[in-house]
Amino acid sequence: MEDRGYYRLCAGIIERAVDDYKTALRYLLSKGIVKSDWNLKEKHFRNRHHREAWNMKTDCERFFLSQYFDYLSNTEEFGPTLMKRIREDVKNGN
Asked: Which pTM does this prediction carry?
């Protein structure tokens, strides 16, 4: 019983990060803040919402590349693959 709760907590943390990452990418793409390679088009942000979305994107990427993510997902090196899949989904409008 305890293991099930632990795994649900781990899955919930990862799901939240995936949702936050998708939201940030969609916002940045829709506002034209990023290029197709997901890098910034400009050096300065026009408003705080742009900066917040960019910070969320970078925070999620840092999480996906971390050892903590590897521990929660019980895998190694899955973070970069997950980020790539999410980016492709967002570019394709999903």
From this structure: 0.91
